[in-house]
Amino acid sequence: MAKYLLLKHYRGAPAAVNDVPMDRWTPAEVTAHIQYMQDFATRLEGTGEFVDGQALAPDGMWVRSDGEGRPPVTDGPFAETKDLIAGWMIIDVDSQDRAVELAGELSAAPGAGGKPIHEWLEVRPFLAAPPTITE
């Protein structure tokens, strides 16, 4: 089994087929989308493939160290100008093919008008072992 991170980008990914921003959906469309996501996770819990998943708020910032004894440096919040990750899901599957299959299914969550979004999801494998350094 291998773990994969499925990232749902709100901004910063290629445009979806049904590319209507969520802030323009009706409350019923938002509810249907969230229910699809919950049902998807529940089904994967039943197969043992679901690890975790969360939706993310649009607020956030970049943070980095500015050196010992100095406060961290922040950049933000400027969510309107940055890539925005809407949420993520971690799955534990037998193969990359299965991860791609599930990501494809998840990308068809309903959006505006109840039609599938067909959004692009980023599929990232977890690092299985630390890299070997040879000199």
TrEMBL record:
It comes from Blastococcus tunisiensis. It comes from the Bacteria. Pfam families: YCII (PF03795). Belongs to the YciI family. Residues 28-107 form the YCII-related domain. This is Uncharacterized conserved protein. InterPro entries: Dimeric_a/b-barrel, YCII. PANTHER family: BLL7171 PROTEIN, BLL7171 PROTEIN-RELATED.
